Amino acid sequence: MDPTLPDPIAPLEGQAELKAQSGVGLSDAQLSQSRRQTLDLVNRLHSTGVQVDIDLPQIVVVGQQSSGKSSLIESVSGITLPRAADSKGQPLGQARNELFGPIIYNKAEVEDRVRRAQRAILSPSKPRRQFLDGDIDELSEKSELSFSRNVVSLSISGPEVADLSFCDLPGLIASVGTGNGASTDIGLVEGLIKSYITKPSCIILLTVACETDFENQGAYRLAKLHDPDGKRTIGVLTKPDRIPTGEEKGWIDFIRNEREPLENNWYCVKQPSSSDLKQNITWHDARQREEEYFAGTSPWSELDSIFHKYLRTRNLVDRLSSVLSDLIAKRLPEIQEELERSITETRQNLKDLAPAPSTDPFNDIAKLIHDFTVDLRQQVIGVPDEDGLLQAIRPAQQQLRTAIRRTAPEFVPLSRESAPSFTLPRVKFLDNEEELVAGEDADDESEDDSEDEGVPQAGYLLGPFGPPTPQQSSAIYVDEVYDRAHEARTRELPGFYPFVVQQSFITEIVDKWHAPALAYLQTVQRVMSKKTKEIVNKHFEGFGQGVLEQRVKTIIHSHLNKCFERAEDRIEWLLDLEDIPFTLNHHYLSDYKEKFLAYYKAAREEATRNNIATQIKAFEQRSIEPSSAFVASPTKARYGSSQAAEPTGVAKVLTGLAEMGITGMKPEDVYKILPLDTMAPAINIMADVRAYFQVAYKRVADNIPLAVDHELVRGIERDVLKILNTGLDKRQDLKNKLDRLQTANEELLGIGV
């Protein structure tokens, strides 16, 4: 039998074990063996501390101070317990039993041992041995606490003792007088009681002293609050011999279950008085006197026989044992399910926790670093994942290309005065190579796939490089180009102009490439910083208290900044190379030069010699009609139907050229044989610069991402293992510090300080 059990959130701070003599307390051999086995099973469950997690059936004794709780427990257990002492302490999360002294074989020694255990609980910082051997009166005066959530667990065993577990809780306190405890004790005790009786499997053994008005006893209020239907409460009236004369009827109504009815009824017991206790009355004598009291004392003796089963301690014990065993039988299958469910949940919670502290931190850290570098290298090389590093960088690359392409010079082959009334046609020969790249706004109708050479339109940098910012350059008119060329002439012969003119335009264009190139580098750095942090978190966040993770982040951040600086220097170097125009792609340059020259001349002729342009357009339109055809040869020409006809206009010119042996001419080539335009040198410069831009911008649009990839993207992975090992190794730092200190000390010793 275990008359006390640990609070579900408190550890056990003391224990006394008693080998009971037969014939006392619950030593009723008539209790069924199966009942004893189920009660014993629950006791063993309580001893594991699992009541912290599972609601186990138990009986708790609740009442006001001096309501007769201790006497009731003594009558049930057959041993004497100390009065006016309870057990505070901090919850440890794991309930446990701690032996307090050797096994007791003489029940007369139990009261003293329990009292000492209580003193030990109330002074948790003192050694346990001090309370086993010290002066009990002196120890009682020096308690650190007035109450505790820790308990004294008393286990009584014997061949004829039935198992019954119950917990004697501290009595509710109405008020605290001077020197009798702290004002917080009232709330502490009430909270302790609530922690038990709120559980559905808790049977509330409610003690009510008949010497005090029922309405003034707060224990029933608590029981009613948490068991409003009275299904878990068994009421016990104590001290019936102290009922004031004339008030017997009010208490008899409880036994009849007419007042505050309970499902398991109210009981009444008569325990030894103070004088009886002083005379060391035996347990057998106490039970005999109780029997005589109820048999010969009115109004109890006058009750109908049906209510006699609610009188006397033995009837109460029978009922308690029956109710507890029935509850256990009902709860056992549920307890099994709850245990299995809790085990599964707890295992999952353990899996969700960070790994346990390492027992081999050196090798564990080495493995973490290795796994991190492997993962980083895979990201740098490229992974087939939409969230991969290279996939995140690609939009910025396309935006860089677009931004550089938009720095193309906006040459207009007309003077500033005549340009507003004329719109340049689309550059058709760029249609195939200037495809819309990923990352550009495909729905932006104002942005043609080709390089629109139009009248004054400000260029813009779009995309991730910041808000739209108008470029300083706008349209460049042919008369402005001519003026710049004329002013640059030195010793050149008439009709010749220095190359410095083309170079000045090219330099202005190259200067515009610095801003988008640096913006691209900064964008890639942000992507790299985010991705490396994610990889660091993935591999290091579960190790220790986060110190290693933070340290690795700091090292990688520093390494990334150095890679950024190298990439920035490389970009500046590449753009410095572009200060002097150069290319070995002569074929492409010449091809572009020829095409842009023809384009600018055609646009200018259309604006200045509209009649010729109109004839060329009309000729081109007729040439594409199915019923029309034109064949130019040295001998004859036919135009229109199958009948030979004398060619006119453009057709006549082309026929004449063919007759002279100049074949393969196109209608737009007519402009080449027209009288020389005074602006021809400026048109030629415009074609030179625009053709060179077409070659150079593609080179730069490739080289800048390549440089950033080499110095920053792939650079972050280069030597990262060595950098991490060095950064995490404090030994070299300490050696360097020691060298500095020793050198300084030698300097001081050298001057005799």
UniProtKB/TrEMBL annotation:
Keywords: Coiled coil, GTP-binding, Nucleotide-binding
An annotated Gene Ontology molecular function: GTP binding
GO annotations of cellular component type: membrane; microtubule; mitochondrion
Biased composition, class Acidic residues, residue ranges: 438-454
Domain spans labelled GED: 682-753
Domain Dynamin-type G positions: 53-333
Domain of life: Eukaryota
PROSITE patterns for the chain: G_DYNAMIN_2, GED
Region: Disordered, residue numbers: 438-464
Coiled coil: 724-751
Organism from which the protein derives: Candolleomyces eurysporus
Protein name listed in UniProt: P-loop containing nucleoside triphosphate hydrolase protein
Pfam families in the cross-refs: Dynamin_M (PF01031), Dynamin_N (PF00350), GED (PF02212)
Single biological process term from Gene Ontology: peroxisome fission
